[in-house]
């Protein structure tokens, strides 16, 4: 549950609070209301908008606490850094994973306690490390000797987590190509840290973003135990295990079961356990509505064509490119007869051929300019990486609701 005060102040800022209504019904009702109210304006906007259901975010946090009660989540701010989301999570006693000075400065006023932040970026700007030192953020990850020297110079009291490499082959977005020290590098890293007087307090890993193989977490926890032993041999006192992010709603209960059993198998019960979930908290909480700006028929009987929308891969649907997501558009109001259909490719608004959202989608043949389509489950890595290329998508509207989920 949300702390009562935080909850009251949060709900007072949300337009549509209907805790007894399902998320699906409330989000659809809200989209229709917005489209209808825009239609009444003298110059209605075709710009896309989000409906964000904060009830879903709160539900995901509850699910986390139910399934992994001993692991303190540090939400990965990069995933969706909208102030309402951060405020809700802060009120729910979630901690934060920040990767930059800006992310730290956004989160700190919400939580006040810098110990609730892990600076989980293995390669940091020296000036950002100094900023972390100034504001009291101590925990940070590393995976190279050079980073150790940088930290020594800028934040000698930091508390370090050695990021180890993982098998990320079962993940949507692989990270081991860029981050994580392999076992043969651990001795050098741990010895250097000891020799220059740095404090290694634990191990971090990330099995890759969007991980559907629960075994990956078990294998990484097993490797973390080996890294703990190595670090202790170099005189470090190890007390934190950071099991990273990657969690998917569909496989979460099973993944959590594997993690609980690996924690016990590899004797981490008395270690402080933390994690860095991102998409798990927000992905299902946001729906994007976009307007059909154009239609080009490619068969004269109107059985095939192309639809051009007011948002695309340079905007909020960048997750198609950066996050390897497949998204499915649905007509908000399926008017006319639905037994005659057309197939259409779906495109964004920019002047670029890369801006394709779908190759083939089936629509009622009545679909036309001015209709609205929506995309569900687009809360993660969407707004946070959106560009305004070609002058589109500047300041996308977000309408918040709070449903009872179900
Ligand atoms: N932590 C780190 C260091 C990351 O790089 C990422 C994503 O790239 C995350 C956490 C969040 O991952 P996810 O959204 O898959 O949970």
Distance between the termini: 15 Å
Described by strand count, sense and barrel closure, the largest sheet is: 9 strands, mixed
**Shape call:** elongated
CATH topology of the largest domain: TIM Barrel
Ligand list: pyridoxal-5'-phosphate
Mean pLDDT: 93
Separate helix tally: 12
Please tell me the CATH architecture of the largest domain by its name.
Alpha-Beta Barrel
Number of strands: 19
Evaluate the radius of gyration. 23 Å
Give unreliable regions as ranges.
none
Full CATH superfamily name of the largest domain: Alanine racemase
- How many domain regions? 2
The helix content, as a percent range, equals: 25-40%
CATH class category label of the largest domain:
Alpha Beta
| SS class | alpha/beta
Question: Beta-sheet strand percentage?
Answer: 25-35%
InterPro entries: Ala_racemase/Decarboxylase_C (IPR009006), De-COase2_CS (IPR022657), De-COase2_N (IPR022644), Orn/DAP/Arg_de-COase (IPR000183), Orn_de-COase (IPR002433), PLP-binding_barrel (IPR029066)
Keywords: Decarboxylase, Lyase, Pyridoxal phosphate
Pfam families: Orn_Arg_deC_N
Family: Belongs to the Orn/Lys/Arg decarboxylase class-II family.
